[in-house]
Amino acid sequence: MGDLTLYALAVFLTLTAPLAVGLLMGVDRKLTARMQNRVGPPLLQPFYDLFKLLGKERRLINPSQAYFALGYLLLEGTSLVVLAAQGDLLVVFFLSGAGSLFLVLGAFSARSPFSQMGAQRELLQILAYEPVFFLIIVSIGIQEHSFISRDMSQNLIVTLPLSLIALVAVLVIKLQKSPYDIAHAHTELVSGPLVEYSGPYLATVELARWAEIAVVFGILTLFWNDPEPVAALLGKMVLVFAALFTTLVIDNVTARLTRRRMVTFTLSFGIALVAANIIWNLYLGQGVGI
Amino acid sequence: MKSPWILHFDTGSCNGCDLEIWALLTPKYDVERFGMVNKANPKHADILLITGPVTKKCEERLRKLYEQTPEPKLVIACGDCASTGAPFMDCYNHNHGVNNVIPVDVFVPGCACRPEAIIDAVIIGINKWKEKAEAMETNVSHEDKIMPDDSPRSDQ
Amino acid sequence: MQRARSKVPCIDKLNLSAPPLPPLGIMELGGWLLLSLIIVPMIGGAACLGLGRVLRLKAGVIVTSSLTILLGLLLFGYMTWNGLASISMTAAEVAPFSEVMLVADFALMLVFLYSGYKERSALVVLFALAQLIPLTWFEFVLSGDLQEPVIMVDFLGVMMALITSIIGSIICIYAIKYMEHDAHQPRFFAVMLLFLGVMNGAVFSNDLLWFLVFWETTTVCSYLLIRHEGTADAIRSGLRALTYTLGGGVALVFAIILLYHYSGTTLLSQLPLGNAISGLALVPIGLFALAAFTKSAQLPFQKWLLGAMVAPTPVSALLHSSTMVNLGVYLLLRLSPSFSPIPELQYAVGLVGGVSFLATSVLAIGQSSSKKVLAYSTIGNLGLIVLCAAIGTKEAIYAGMLLLLFHAISKALLFMAVGVVKHETGSEDIEPMDGLRDKMPFVTFALFVGVITLLLPPFGMFASKWMISEISANYPLFAFLLAIGFGASVVYYGKWLGRTFSAGPMRARKSAIDQPLSSYFKWTLLALMAGAVGLSFLISQVVAYLIVPYLGPLHIDVLFVSGALGMFPMFALLVVIVVSLTALALLSGSGKAEITDAYTGGEPFVFANSGAYFFSEKTAGKAIILINAIAVLLLISLFLFPAMQEVGLWAI
Predict the structure, then answer these.
(1) How far is A194 from chain B (nearest CA, A)?
(2) What does the domain layout of chain A look like in residue ranges?
(3) Which pLDDT score, from 0 to 100, does residue C563 have?
(4) What are the residue ranges spanned by the domains of chain C?
(5) Residue A233 backbone phi and psi in degrees, to 5
(6) Which B residues in the span 74-133 are in contact with A, Cβ-Cβ below 8 Å?
């Protein structure tokens, strides 16, 4: 592919990926409703929500909330740009992590009981998923001998099946799904870190969250590679839908865990899964030696 | 307006109307069809579903919640108590209806109000949404928004 | 006793990048610069003791600090301008000083003996004797002549000298205001300035005996500074610091003697390469590492640095960013080729660093004192540098050097900002910092800059973390330690920063504007903020002028994000973010938003903030015992492997 095509592709992916996630959220809500024997909202419901929020009045407790929300969006967006430009996965990871920190700071910057508690819990979630996410990326790097996503060529789903399972756990937390909807916990914390955001600012945060989720899905798609573009695309899409469906089922059949159990469970099982996978691969002599 | 987010607030209701509101979320009525979601947070809400006659104790809370809901917003008084005070007509400790504290857009009759009626009220309310949004565009000052022409009845 | 030097291959930095020998005149100028970088702060310090009156003391500190900064920059400029990879001075050139060093060495031991006797600490006396006796034997019986060159500076040394001279001097200037009500100012500033000179001396020394003298002088300086306030707590902490670092000194003395015994050298530039030695010849290397661990407060020696938090904040800033603890990791970076080729030692040292990073990052979550959090963070970051030294590839050393530099700037900034808070409000705990941005917006901003430059992309620290992560793919075991550590450091910094940013509705805050900040505080904080952000902008220049001259060109360049679209500089990302943030903020005009109250369920209650600390001191205490046990095992293994190899039980 020529440079221009690549640029166009990167820009196209960066712009469409959050929208695709928005659509996925719609699918998610529809499927959840069907599982609960309801009709559910229209597929485009997340976009209706977003547009409505944009048209509402601007209200803030203090301006720094708005800056942190914008920072969150921009950092997640940059992370997505790097991923779409097939750049370094570690940079993608660190940028996305920086975005999450901005969400937390935005929540902290409003002196509100729910917001503060939500921020504390969001930090715990970061503590729970970040190490696992990091190790998944390291395991990809070990397997492919590179962290540059352009270099990915194997079907990682075959060589790193356990990392893939761990990634689903990360996805559950990032999607704020039960049993890990600790921070947003709508029955007790209203919506955690987002409580004090309203109108257009809430829309900003929501969009940033879509970008953040797009990053996770983007890394998920790296698990399937095929020299044939159509097959690759199909495989990637199947992978995304399978992961989404799994989190959805998990969401509907589990109740929320306590925050302590979330941290211990995710860290121990997530890390153990990735470790088992890495050790297995080293044992088979596929990866690098110690 | 395809995404009305709801804040439900009980101002001293007997819980009859509240049960009917919760029934909206069940598979039978499934208001998520219309994009309605219970947000439990005035900052995210568009429509306030208020039950109960508004006890004096609740008055400040209700006003606060109303103020914290960003414009444009709708208030729906659910049930007879919320609409008029009904059996508490001459009680010393009530405000005799939501309308005496904050402006109401739609009144839903019934003791308790039927879920179908609430859905109906929301749909009616959504029709008013457009003019509210336009009013917001023309920059009505904040004071005017809180106290429109039909100011609270003070003769009770 | 055989004194012939054995012919083991050596790291000879002089030969590695042999530059054309400069004419004699230039060499002398370089030598003078080196010597003055050591001596000027010392003279300034001594003068401070004499300048009793406050005004003159101020002038003395400012002049000395400025001179030191200037000399540091001159040295860097001089070496870069002339394209020198290193400057060295022979024994003949420094002849007048060698006697001084010998006297200083024994004077130091006597000081230690006296302190131990005065404080009734048997351990200190024991350690002092354990240094004095072997050293006397070594100096007078074993080794006669000084080996050449006594003083040698390459760009690692220049970087260390720049950190010490510039950041250390800024801290001294800052301290003028911070210590203005102190009763013993002359003594305080004398030791602070002496510290800078001694630190420069240590990184310039090539001869290990000289290095030892400076090393032990930093121990004395830190001891004096920690116990400066004279409270029971301060004296206890000072004594603890003295005990720990003096114990490290004993390891260093034995390391030097054994190194001479096995490899026939006492020069840092001629340390044996790891794959050239085996068996007991590896013991001195282990001892050097042990000494470095005590100095850099790695597990299980972290306690002295945490205790050192009782000292006035400028002292903490100095110890943590520009002097003391840096010396340990500096030694390890120098030592890296000696132990990193041997997997057993590599993993033992690397694990000490990695476990230090992991454990301190997690423990910091449970801390409510900001200085303790910073102390844990320092130990953790030094642990990362230790890890880099253990991995020992060119890229790893590169990452370690970047980390050392940027950590020093950001950490000094953070400590100084905390110091201002302490100075103005009398507390350094995190909880009372709730809503700090209302009371002290500038200081809060300084804290913010300090934390984001320490944590987030695309600032300097991130470049090295990124690099370490890349390298960790070759060392999966280390990757697991890094993973949790990275996550936990986001948590404890986020928690603290969030606390300072927490604020109520904007309209209620209009009256709360803080009193103007002292210009000493303001300008020193500004200088460091500019340094932290500016050097991140100029990171490719930093690499080109400080790191490449030391390591040579690198294969990979992490300053650029490479992708299908080629490479684009990491910092372009920041520029994009900042520009678009500003543009969006201007466009959306957040000022127009209406100010509202927090949602409290409609209730009018006043809300009191409090942080979550997730685990109690008791749990932490139990964990520390476990972690220390692991660290001790790792340290034992550092000597067990060579011993087992010597008797043929283990094939390395």
Answers:
(1) 9
(2) 3-283
(3) 54
(4) 343-505+513-555+626-652
(5) -60, -45
(6) 133
